[in-house]
Amino acid sequence: MKKTVILVGLIVVGWLGQCALGAEEGQSPAALPAEPQLCPAPTTNGKLVADLVKLLDETESKDTVFLTMEVLESLGADARPAVTPIIRNAERLGMITVDYSRVREAVLRILKAKPECPAVPSIQPAVRY
Predict the structure, then answer these.
(1) Could you give the number of structural domains in the chain?
(2) Is residue 14 part of a domain?
């Protein structure tokens, strides 16, 4: 349990430190645009993430957990609700002590993923001939 608390603390602190309100590496938060950019794209992976979390909760196989983590990583920011279950189930199966770096990397990739926004078509000015 103590290792899980330390793992969660390190992940959150590292993520907050690196993301610093969305700043890129080497960019100070003051250099960010004043207006946040909104992403109107609705998430379409909610049911898939819920099913994968259920699988994490039910499995007794470390291989299944690793495969599920890879699938969740590929979903990017949509998989953020699965971070806590990943850590909880990795601890339950004894993976934190043996495979700490694999679990940590999967969680960090999910937390660092930026939400995908649909391409906004450029608006061309009307040309009168």
Answers:
(1) 1
(2) yes
Does 86 fall in a domain?
yes
What confidence score (pLDDT) does residue 88 get?
A: 95
Whole-number Å distance between alpha carbons of 30 and 103: 33
Distance between start and end Cα atoms, the chain: 73
Tell me if 119 sits within 8 A of 22, measured CB to CB.
no
Please count the other Cβ atoms lying within 10 Å of the Cβ belonging to residue 63: 8
Quick one: 110 exposed, middle or buried, by C-beta within 10 A (0-12, 13-18, 19+)? Answer: buried
45-59, 87-101, 112-126: which has the minimum mean pLDDT? 112-126
Question: Which residues does 103 contact at the CB level (< 8 Å), separation at least 6?
Answer: 7, 69, 86, 87, 90, 95, 96
State both tokens at 75: 């979903």
Mean per-residue pLDDT over the chain, rounded: 76
Residue 45 and residue 75 in contact, taking contact as beta carbons nearer than 8 Å: yes
